[in-house]
């Protein structure tokens, strides 16, 4: 496990030119094509791991209408993104501390119209959120699955993408579809692939190699790899107990793998383009 990244064929550092215009708070979207591949677990855990590494992390639940990050943490938000959009709550008042160095901005659950926000409401959200940015080193956005407008707007506004997939053929096909749509809008977005729910390193490398090759063949571009995360039996127990798996099982295979991904993320975050909010506001696409 310790040297999993060294063994991953195709590892390519992201071009530093993309990160030249440094920002104090780059944004990383954690997304997937297929649902249920572990985005929320990975976004939350990478956030906690980054906080352990001394980074100040703002974790945003960008799964509008189907929010669940606060549930994974056993928290009951008093306020959420819906109220921020309505102008009845300041973003800073909605924040939930998850521990030293990490806060969660919860989304709203069961709000159908939030799952497909019109561009002007996305713009309002961007304006509200930009006020929070200065207090953090990195903003992680856990998005909904798939290529819906709200998710794509969040992804295309980000400085980086962490695309989670699994070895399952359906997850691979959906990850490719996601990359295709993403690349048709923003060819310059640095993306890394993460294979979750893997039975072994071999299976992970096969899955990532397959996806990289298809992407290279049909999109003319080979995404970088962030790493892989093994399936850890019994992980769902922590969800039932409403405890983040990363904290409940800090020496488990899941947490150890996530820590490696967080370390790579720190390297990536040496810079950042820092215009998430202007892009989310519709200025660039
Ligand atoms: N590495 C892992 N080992 C074992 N179980 C895992 C692992 N990663 C995720 N899971 C389980 O997979 C399920 C889905 O995880 P999660 O909710 O994070 O996925 P998601 O991609 O965010 O889903 P959605 O698309 O609905 O937002 C959960 O039950 C979780 O416990
Ligand atoms: Mg999720």
Short description:
The protein has an eight-stranded mixed beta sheet, sandwiched between helices.
What does this structure look like?
- Helices cover 41% and strands 16% of the residues.
- With 285 residues, it is an alpha/beta fold.
- The chain has a single domain, classed as Rossmann fold.
- The protein has an 8-stranded mixed sheet, sandwiched between helices.
- Helix 1 (39-52) crosses helix 11 and helix 7 (169-185) runs parallel beside helix 8.
- It is globular, with a radius of gyration of 17 Å.
- It starts with 26 loop residues before the first strand and ends in a 5-residue tail after the last helix.
- Residues 1-22 have low confidence and may be disordered.
- Bound molecules: adenosine-5'-triphosphate and magnesium ion.
- Adenosine-5'-triphosphate binds at residues 32, 35-41, 63, 145, 196-197, 229, 231-232, 235-236, 239, 254.
Write the layout of secondary structure elements.
Elements: E1 27-31, H1 39-52, E2 57-62, H2 69-72, H3 81-86, H4 91-94, E3 96-99, E4 102-105, H5 119-130, E5 138-143, H6 149-157, E6 160-165, H7 169-185, E7 191-198, H8 201-219, E8 224-230, H9 235-240, H10 245-248, H11 253-268, H12 276-280
Parallel strand pairs: 1-5, 1-6, 2-4, 2-5, 6-7, 7-8
Antiparallel strand pairs: 3-4
Helix pairs in contact: 1-11, 7-8
């Amino acid at each position: 496990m310790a040297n999993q990244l060294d063994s991953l064929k195709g590892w390519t550092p992201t071009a530093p030119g993309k990160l030249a215009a440094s920002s104090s708070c780059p944004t990383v979207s954690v997304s997937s094509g297929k649902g249920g591949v572990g985005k929320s677990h990975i976004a939350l855990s990478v956030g906690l791991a980054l906080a352990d590494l001394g980074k100040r992390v703002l974790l945003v639940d960008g799964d509008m209408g189907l929010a669940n990050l606060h549930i994974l943490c056993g928290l009951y938000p008093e306020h959420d993104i819906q109220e921020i959009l309505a102008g009845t709550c300041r973003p800073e008042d909605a924040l939930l501390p998850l521990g030293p160095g990490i806060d969660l901005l919860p989304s709203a659950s069961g709000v159908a119209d939030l799952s497909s926000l019109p561009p002007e409401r996305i713009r309002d959200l961007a304006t509200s959120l930009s006020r929070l940015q200065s207090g953090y080193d990195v903003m992680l956005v856990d998005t909904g699955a798939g290529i819906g407008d709200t998710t794509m707007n969040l992804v295309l506004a980000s400085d980086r993408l962490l695309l989670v997939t699994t070895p399952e053929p359906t997850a691979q096909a959906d990850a490719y579809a996601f990359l295709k749509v993403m690349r048709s809008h923003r060819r310059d977005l640095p993306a890394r692939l993460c294979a979750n729910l893997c039975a072994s390193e071999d299976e992970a490398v096969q899955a990532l190699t397959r996806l990289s090759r298809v992407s290279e063949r049909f999109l003319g571009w080979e995404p970088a790899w962030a790493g892989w995360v093994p399936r850890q039996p019994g992980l769902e127990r922590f969800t039932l107990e409403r405890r983040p798996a990363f904290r409940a099982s800090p020496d488990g295979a899941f947490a150890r793998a996530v820590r490696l991904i967080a370390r790579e993320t720190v390297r990536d975050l040496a810079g950042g383009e820092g215009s998430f909010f202007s892009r989310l506001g519709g200025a660039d696409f």
